[in-house]
Amino acid sequence: MKKGIDQHQIGESVEQHLLIKNAKKGIASNGKPFLTLHVTDKSGEIEAKMWGISADDEAKFVPGTVVHISGDVQDFRGMRQLRLKAIRLSASGEQVNPEDFLPSAPRGRDEMLEEVNQYLFDMQNAKLQRLTRHLFKKHQQAFSVSPAATKNHHEFVSGLLYHVLSMLELAKGIAMQYPSLNKDLLYAGIILHDMAKVRELSGPMATQYTLEGKLIGHISMMSSEIEEAAKELSIEGEEVLVLQHLILSHHAKGEWGSPKPPLVREAEILHLIDNIDAKMNMLDRALERTPAGEFTERIFAMDQRSFYKPTFTE
Amino acid sequence: MKKGIDQHQIGESVEQHLLIKNAKKGIASNGKPFLTLHVTDKSGEIEAKMWGISADDEAKFVPGTVVHISGDVQDFRGMRQLRLKAIRLSASGEQVNPEDFLPSAPRGRDEMLEEVNQYLFDMQNAKLQRLTRHLFKKHQQAFSVSPAATKNHHEFVSGLLYHVLSMLELAKGIAMQYPSLNKDLLYAGIILHDMAKVRELSGPMATQYTLEGKLIGHISMMSSEIEEAAKELSIEGEEVLVLQHLILSHHAKGEWGSPKPPLVREAEILHLIDNIDAKMNMLDRALERTPAGEFTERIFAMDQRSFYKPTFTE
Amino acid sequence: MKKGIDQHQIGESVEQHLLIKNAKKGIASNGKPFLTLHVTDKSGEIEAKMWGISADDEAKFVPGTVVHISGDVQDFRGMRQLRLKAIRLSASGEQVNPEDFLPSAPRGRDEMLEEVNQYLFDMQNAKLQRLTRHLFKKHQQAFSVSPAATKNHHEFVSGLLYHVLSMLELAKGIAMQYPSLNKDLLYAGIILHDMAKVRELSGPMATQYTLEGKLIGHISMMSSEIEEAAKELSIEGEEVLVLQHLILSHHAKGEWGSPKPPLVREAEILHLIDNIDAKMNMLDRALERTPAGEFTERIFAMDQRSFYKPTFTE
Amino acid sequence: MKKGIDQHQIGESVEQHLLIKNAKKGIASNGKPFLTLHVTDKSGEIEAKMWGISADDEAKFVPGTVVHISGDVQDFRGMRQLRLKAIRLSASGEQVNPEDFLPSAPRGRDEMLEEVNQYLFDMQNAKLQRLTRHLFKKHQQAFSVSPAATKNHHEFVSGLLYHVLSMLELAKGIAMQYPSLNKDLLYAGIILHDMAKVRELSGPMATQYTLEGKLIGHISMMSSEIEEAAKELSIEGEEVLVLQHLILSHHAKGEWGSPKPPLVREAEILHLIDNIDAKMNMLDRALERTPAGEFTERIFAMDQRSFYKPTFTE
Amino acid sequence: MKKGIDQHQIGESVEQHLLIKNAKKGIASNGKPFLTLHVTDKSGEIEAKMWGISADDEAKFVPGTVVHISGDVQDFRGMRQLRLKAIRLSASGEQVNPEDFLPSAPRGRDEMLEEVNQYLFDMQNAKLQRLTRHLFKKHQQAFSVSPAATKNHHEFVSGLLYHVLSMLELAKGIAMQYPSLNKDLLYAGIILHDMAKVRELSGPMATQYTLEGKLIGHISMMSSEIEEAAKELSIEGEEVLVLQHLILSHHAKGEWGSPKPPLVREAEILHLIDNIDAKMNMLDRALERTPAGEFTERIFAMDQRSFYKPTFTE
Amino acid sequence: MKKGIDQHQIGESVEQHLLIKNAKKGIASNGKPFLTLHVTDKSGEIEAKMWGISADDEAKFVPGTVVHISGDVQDFRGMRQLRLKAIRLSASGEQVNPEDFLPSAPRGRDEMLEEVNQYLFDMQNAKLQRLTRHLFKKHQQAFSVSPAATKNHHEFVSGLLYHVLSMLELAKGIAMQYPSLNKDLLYAGIILHDMAKVRELSGPMATQYTLEGKLIGHISMMSSEIEEAAKELSIEGEEVLVLQHLILSHHAKGEWGSPKPPLVREAEILHLIDNIDAKMNMLDRALERTPAGEFTERIFAMDQRSFYKPTFTE
């Protein structure tokens, strides 16, 4: 199998198709325009500069386009950068599909959906089960491919589903340790907590915030959807209210976007599990790229800390 | 007309019916139980202690009951307190109605509703007008008597309506000064911004937070109601989304309960007008009770500041 | 009438006189010096780069100079930039006057002064009136042309006067809504609150902070001037003290530069009105430059927020 | 079996031996001295007031003494309080042992020690194992009975051991979910993280901070002990350094007492697990005392939040 | 010489004249009024309660009155309290003078004034010298008796003068260490920095904030006085401006009351010296009252810290 | 004597040996690599750019190398920059020694060590003296050349020793002013407070943080060393504990890296003296480079403030 873009060392040559994920125009200090491209395949992404571009180039090399590139990898201020020797649009006959170039979750979509379904199936409380199943079915298609964020953690195809499943598994272990937890409520909260990201974000390709994402946000959206679903399914009772609360409070603090802090035990633990899975995802990926005995680059969403990778093992 | 409880000076005798707004049991340092009552008539409220109570007294003197009191007003650590000489339940033949004892807005309910209706009538944008009118009709009954809060500002019968009308009048003047403002959007935001307080609070008598008030809050509730109303009325378009945003952002900051900061001009000004009216209400009432040349008591919701009342006039 | 620099679209040619407001030398990555110019006419300003300059150019193209430019407007990282084809000093025979190139308030200076005078004339409290009139006369000349700031809001010729008049008009409406406010005190506070900016800032051309502006600040300066004026006019009484307090507290918090928080009702409302007018000025100008359906650039002095301009109207 | 003090309802009589945990003298408003006692048995504790005490009483009823009490439970401002009818020192013939009256962990000491030993036994990395075992042996006696804190969470006999074991079990599940974690390092960090509480606190009876607890703190003490132990055992290598780092950083932030933030993956997860177990312990105990459908008292160490106990079950 | 009130141990009898510094009425839980008195002599102060007072007592025992007390010192919640056996107004024939009962600085007023004068005399810069001398003369009388604060530090007769002199001596040593410091500027800043406390506070007896103290504050007052004095003395030049800056910035931060942070080297060091002397004064007095081997009470103005007094000596 | 690099004015030619302190590779916007060098001699340092470098250049011009440079000093955005005309490695025959090029303390190492020894010699408390002398001897070699930091203050050869001696001298003056201070304890704390910087930093050349510096920090290291030394010397008693506390608390706050705030008088004053000496060092150096009548560049570690240098003198 061919080496992905992320496996190329400094100094190696590149000769392959890549997807343009981002393209930004700049003006060099000689007054000439250039493009800063972020190109990607399943293995990861790399930056490339196109110097002295024409207006035609600018129109051609846009996000979502697959291009064929030859060049080599060089070091620029401690980061890898791709020096272009040639770049052209991939031809239709080359049978390249943009979706095949996006990084995605390490597990298969259908297998993961199946596992979430099992958690749904095991719920005892009929109201929580019906509400959660209803919303899961409603958004299943988008939910199964959406990233969990535009950056920082789980920002890949099916990242949201992968994040939710990882949280469910953590929750199962924690609920065994603290049997007073209401597992149904916790599982329902986990499955729905970020589900409105399918409306907040524009989807897996060139992901950005939608207008309603910016003005309303996934937290308020999902709370409204639960209220509406309860009416549609004629479900009444405290379950509806408390489940909405879990969604509204899952960022824990006002300054992090939650209009209410957790005021129910399962709301508190939902926030803590979300936090663990996001941090472990960021740390694992940063440390994978770091040799033992060195520090990672600064991790923005972890207070700009740089983590050390020890040289010893178990 | 008879003097209200708030007009009695230190040393004067009291002989009148009063409503028990609050009653809290304590144990004196001699081991005997007592009640701390807050009793009220339209003019204001006063604290009274009932020493050495029986279990029977405890069951009888509960919030919402009208009692006949004789006693006199004395000074206790700089605050007025009512020393009881006698207290009994008012008899049914005395024709006292609890509602008649609650402080309420300085203007008539119907007159205020009429003025809000006029603002609704003058709206040009049909979508905003229909949405706002629909929710106004839905909650009109509770809205017209609800306080705006349990304490701090506008915490009296029809306080919410009085607050909204005052904000509409401020908005009218400000919109003349800055003609770029969308008046319809601003008026709709003002009328709806606190409307879900009718669900968040338990009503004008013995006002407290409801369960959904504590777990969801009036901000998220009203955003959901707008979304639902738009579906019911088949209204589509950015108006719905932006109006929801005005509601969600009207507390301005996450730490003050808003999941989004204002990101639309009218959302910003809605917050500023809300702020002005709440502060002027708190200040006016604190200064009314303060002689010229002195400082008010500390005002909790204004950073515990104590304000000076100058001795000169215009 | 000729199109101003602010009305030129991307791609259009420019051929006109412009005033150099700012000039900053840089070294390009090829080691050669260049100038970053900000050039302006009444309609607004634009950035232009002069590449490969000589020492002679550096001495010639300085702030306050009028130049004749031909070039065209291009897009640079989402901002308009002027590409120079030719630039020369405007000749004396071309009759260009630097003052004619500075952006200024949308209303005439004399008309605005007249209106402020009317507010002064209407005051009832003789002490406040005499104090305010005295200081207004003393600084009238500089006050009538000073900007209100070096950036962010009202940073144009007569910006300070325009800001004060706008605040007076807001105050008039608000005082009708809350009749307990002392209008004379409030108007006096508004007229004087920023008046020492005539000492804090260096004037309308190439505006910067003076030494006393940096070490003392306009808040402390004006408080001292009121004290001194009262002695000169033999005015005694609480009016002097309270008016000083309004000036000292108008930034509301210590971290925003006020040595005292507002402790008088009119001081509180003065701060709130100042806040509204500054924010509306920033928002109006940012939204004017933004098409409907898009977000403004980030506004620094409003917590870096980017505002949305809705597509619907009243 | 006899009912414990925590199972008595308001209005019920008490007739039993209890341990004085705390005794504080006060002066009543009639000028006479009284004692506020906190008395306890295994089930929990209750407050009692002794009015009108003599100097002799003051000397007799001190912390650590077992007394025989008859009285009844009454309500005082929403909290249970014990009204004394009679109180006397328990006689030596009554065979009461202070230790038998202290609340303690829900599991047996030896069984828990055994389980921790098993975690030690399973470690692969010889250096971490030897270091941890050495310190575990050194403090085993005190460690097995120490509370984890003076208040808030795990503040009972063997609370520290119970807390550590609960964290080890959580860690096991989490390490299965994230196989990149170094289990040995994480287990060593958990076992040692709070071990110096045996020096910081004065032990299980009448627990208070020691002088070195106040001036040095358990975090710095244990870091020093690891350094010293490594020298004693001639252990060198990064394990020592990194293990010290886990201890130093386990409170995560400077303002919470850690001189370094977590900079190693296992340090981060150690902090998160510590946080989960402390919060679940606080929540479980507060909710146990709360009927379904009501809110708990405010929990000091969880931002003073009051949590709701839902009425529905799985 | 007779023992002062501060030298009496728990259990000892008191029989002496004392000054009432403060008197506050309360209502006991039996409904009867009482007075909380703070009585003082030069050695310190103590609290005393007068139970069951008459209206006549209330009028008689007011701040500023000297009384003759017999009673004994007892312990109340860890603080000393005076139990009254008898209290009466001191008769005119007893020749007691209120001033003789106030705690005051440990050094004589005239001797301290003389030393400050010496610092003035040694100044080289004529402008700074004349300005400082002028203001020193103007306020010398009040300055020489004023406390430096109402509580926390140097809150005794001549406390301000004592504080200033202590700072001058510190400054002398520090200026030797850092010869780049401008001693004249620093000394002038120290002498004037708190001088307007003579206007901010009401004087040494029953010290409280004046109206201008609350609304303007000593920082702004002294800056204005320097400006005015410079005009009166026809002194021009940067000295005036920079000296004003030292005054304005001596609280270092906006949230601590300074409208400008220190922007001149001597302003920075003035703040640091002020800080040292205030803290050492608070610490010395708290530690004097604390036996070796114990902790002081919490010191409010030092982040509520409680300090340990070691048992060893040099 | 030849002029140092810091004494060269804009426009002057440079022809001398310099030490490379730092070298960072960049890519110019024309795609070609360049080096940003920081070169230094005893007088100070300057930045230089090497354009269009080869791989060979990159390997040759590394930190720690002495080079011979000819070029001239030019202005780049308000900072001095060295334009290279020629650069080559200094030949071994030229007898240049890297140590001779590093900026160092203004006083001689041996003389300073001697003075610190005198402070040690004068101590009265034998335990504190033995502990301090032991650790001083142990680290004397590294201590005498170590910088006190990598940047901000005292970041030069022997900077740590110079800082400690300056603090001792300040302490001597302050202890005379406040005789209640325990001089021995304070001197011991000063001598040891930063001593573990010899382990935290990599030494005087190309100073950076070591691994244990990053993960443990000098504060925790020195506390452990004191504990260990006390065992080694069989010193017992509160002196050990309190001295550790001085080290642990000398950064004063958790967010500044101290696990405990100062809780002993000498700990508080140690922090204040440390603060004064660091700030005076930063200010003195920034002001030395600034002409009278101008402001310094922003000083990072003093809240980014820019300080004014007055034009008048004593």
Précis, in short:
The structure is a homohexamer of 314-residue chains. With 314 residues, chain A is an alpha+beta fold. Chain A has helices at residues 55-60, 109-121, 126-143, 159-177, 183-192, 197-200, 211-215, 218-232, 238-248, 265-288; strands at residues 13-27, 33-41, 44-50, 66-76, 79-89.
**Overall geometry of chain A:** globular
Q: Assembly type of the shown chains?
A: homohexamer
Number of helices of chain A: 10
Q: What is the CATH class designation of the largest domain in chain A?
A: Mainly Alpha
Strand content of chain A: 15-25%
Q: Find the structural class of chain A using helix and strand composition.
A: alpha+beta
Major interchain interface with per-chain residue totals: A-D, 49 and 48 residues
Q: What characterizes the major β-sheet of chain A?
A: 5 strands, mixed, barrel
Order of helices and strands of chain A: EEEHEEHHHHHHHHH
Distance from N terminus to C terminus of chain A (CA atoms, Å) equals 32 Å
Radius of gyration of chain A: 22 Å
